[in-house]
């Protein structure tokens, strides 16, 4: 019997630590649970053709002339002049079917920008957790989960997603460092009730001030969509 | 009744994230459980007069001419030509009493170097956990716990110490961000048996290859020493 090659898994808790991780030989899963990657998954699941992640506001607005729907947020709030904000419910509308979106957010699209040279980049959220895990099992690449965090700082919700994915892939990947087991321990503690576990998280509090409890509850639902967004030529599409 | 001013607590999981944290108004607790800060606490508790943390090997060796005992490690191993390595048991000898030490390690002294401009810098380890907590309660400063990690990456043992300190100070400080609660959740999970919880930690495995299980067990003992090392003019002394 030939043994399969070892596939490594690691977790980067913040885009500000990405310089420590090789990405040229990896599939990178970018995660920004509240709410960028949850929106991206929702949009592609509901028939949006493609999403162009853009790091800067001006570049995003500029893509409107090119026929893009512009969407995004800064500090959790919709940007004036943009077509859509950062609530997953905005991405379920029938009229977005077949459209291209240009998307910029405080953390998620910045994180994507930092790993654009990785071997492969995909998008993770609780909404497509199982689809992502199933896809990664079929890949030969090593794996890095990149948490978008909050302006460079770690956050709880992205870490919990990383832990959930490490948990699902425990038989398929070998942890390289302490971060995967830290994330997994936290997820296993939070698992009985993710929503309660997160109630004191700083970004949940920040969003509560914006009265979007419904968004938060939705972003914590697991396996709503059997969709894996992948980055191809700088644009996210359904694989 | 006048209310006391709020004191904030935060945890920086890696020296590579220190740029995100203000330190000018803070007491920073630097922690490198395996084994730099455990050694520093042990040395001062056993009568060493002062410890000069040095980031580079050559600078450390150069201080020998000035009457310093030279000590430290790279990648967990003693440096050739140095007087002492990085086992806490080396710092208990009677002949070190009254001596000055120059100390350099892979992570711990590098972390110290990054916060030398903080309002106050102290040294934490499980060995002096309660002493550190008691001291911090008396201070008016905000608090940052800086985990030395491993070459920029997060590690489990330093995070668990941070969690233990957050746990002890829960009534005295207010968390600013998610990192303190993440560390505290992990500590509360690990608390019944720190040693078992850490057995898969990457640095524990690394050290096991060096056959220093005894060091690890000692570094996880709580409250052996009622000592708080503080940085004064670039040198660690007992306060």
Description:
2 copies of one chain form a homodimer. In chain A, α4 (129-138) crosses α5 and α5 packs across α6 (179-190). The model of chain A has no long low-confidence stretch (mean pLDDT 94). The first copy, chain A, is an alpha/beta fold. The first copy, chain A, contains 9 helices and 11 strands. The first copy, chain A, has a 5-stranded parallel beta sheet, sandwiched between helices. A 4-stranded mixed beta sheet of chain A has the order 3-6-4-5. The first copy, chain A, starts with 7 loop residues before the first strand and ends with a strand. The first copy, chain A, is globular. In chain A, β4 and β5 form a beta hairpin. In chain A, 32% of the residues lie in helices and 21% in strands. Chain A has one domain (8-231): Alpha-Beta Complex (putative 2-phosphosulfolactate phosphatase), CATH 3.90.1560.10. The longest helix of chain A has 13 residues, at 156-168. Chain A has helices spanning 36-45, 57-62, 108-114, 129-138, 156-168, 179-190, 194-197, 202-208, 213-219, and strands at residues 8-12, 26-31, 50-53, 69-74, 77-78, 100-104, 120-124, 142-147, 174-175, 229-232, 235-238. At the A-B interface, α6 of A face α6 of B.
